[in-house]
Amino acid sequence: MSIDELTEKVIGCAYRVHNELGSGFLEKVYENALRIELANMGLDVKQQYPLPVFYHNELVGDYYADLLVEDHLILELKAVLNLTKEPEIQLVNYLTAAGIDDGLLINFGTSVEVKRKFRQYRRRPGSEN
Fold first, then answer.
1. How many independent structural domains does the chain possess?
2. Which of 98, 101, 92, 114 is nearest to 34 (CA)?
3. Deepest in the core among 33, 90, 96, 125, taking most CB within 10 A?
4. Is 124 within a domain?
5. What SS3 state is found at 6?
6. DSSP letter string over 19-82?
7. Residue 59 sits in which domain range?
8. pTM check: above 0.70
9. How far apart are CA 73 and CA 57, in angstroms?
């Protein structure tokens, strides 16, 4: 399955979770529900998966991915009214540290808000810059 197909499936699962639970729960509730939904789709999902962070080839700590799907997609989940830029920057740093190319920031606020992030800059199709 391509990363685009995987991303589409994950986003669909996020909407199903939000449609059933609604808004107002803590992030952990959505994380647990999304893990169940993804697993029911037959996807390999690891919850609170430790990813080592290195500095000058020395381990300096672990980042725990909310969800790691098919070992190729990090999901960073939030349950806030308004997303700020910090979680987006944080997700890109996690992708870089883990050596994983693709991530989704999913906010289960009043409705589902999804931002796709990449370890390296990717030009949008049709853009000239």
1. 1
2. 114
3. 33
4. no
5. helix
6. HHH-S---HHHHHHHHHHHHHHTT--EEEEEEEEEEETTEEEEEEEEEEEETTTEEEEEE--SS
7. 3-118
8. yes
9. 24
